[in-house]
Amino acid sequence: MLDQVNHWVDVAATAVDCLLLLRILTLKLFRPYVFVTLFALLAVLFDGVMLWLGPDSREFLRVFLYSRFLYALVFPAVAYDVFEEAKGQVAKFRKLGLRRLVSSIILAAVFGFLVAGFGGVEQESGGDATLATVALVVWAAAATASMAFLWSMRRAIRTQKMEVPRNTSVFMVFFSLAFAMELLSCLFDVAIPLLNAPLSGAIQLAINAFGIAITTWCILKLRAMPSDMQPEPEKAGL
C-alpha cells in the first residue's frame, strides 16, 4: 500500500517540477537565472527517467549515482546564480562566499576519493560500492556547502539591511530548503539498510511531500522581473 502511495507521490512530484520549469520559462526568468533553470530542467529529466526505469531498478540506481556527480557541479552554480538579480548589491559578499564554496567542495571531493580508495573492499558487482561511496560524499558536500553559502549570504543581507528583489528572496529560501532536503535524502540513502521497509517507505514519503510543498510554494511566489530591471540596449556611440 505504501509503495503505491509513494509511486503516485513520485508522479505528483514530477508534475510539480514540470510546473516550476514552466513557470520559470513563462516569466522569462531563464535569462538571469541560467543555472536555476538548468536545475529545474534536470529535475524534470531525472524524474522522468525514474518513472520510466522504476525507482528500485538497478538501471536507475546507476543513473542516480552518476547524476550525483553532475549535481555536485550544478548545486554551487545554482547557489551563486540565486543572486543574479541583486548582483550589483551583493557582489562583494558573493565573491567572498564563492571562494569558501569552491574550496569546501574540492576538499570534500578529495576526501571522497580517499575514502573510496582506502575504505574497504569493492563488491563483486564491479565497483558499485566505490561509486556509491564517492557519489554520496560528493553529493552531501555539494548540498552542505551550497546551503552554507546561501545562509551566509542571507545573514550578510540582513546585517547590511539590503532590499533584494522578490525572486532573489524566493529562490534564497527555496534552495536553502531544497539543499537541506538533498542532505537529508543523502543521509536517508545511507541509512536505508538499517531500516525496515515500512519505516523507510514512510520517510521517503515525508521527504517527497516536503519537496512538493516547497516547490509549490516557490511556483506561487515567483513573479516576472520588473521592466526597469530588464537589461537596456546599449546606445550607439557617436
Can you tell me about this structure?
The chain has 238 residues and is mainly alpha-helical. It has one domain. It contains seven helices and no strands. It has helices at 2-26, 34-53, 58-81, 87-118, 128-159, 166-191, 197-221. α2 (34-53) packs antiparallel against α3, α3 (58-81) packs parallel to α5 (128-159) and α6 runs antiparallel to α7. It is globular and about 50 Å long.
> Would you count the extended β strands for me?
0
Alpha carbon gyration radius: 19 Å
Q: What percentage of amino acids are in beta strands?
A: under 5%
Domain unit count? 1
The portion of residues assigned to helices is over 70%
Brief rundown of the structure:
The protein has helices at residues 2-26, 34-53, 58-81, 87-118, 128-159, 166-191, 197-221.
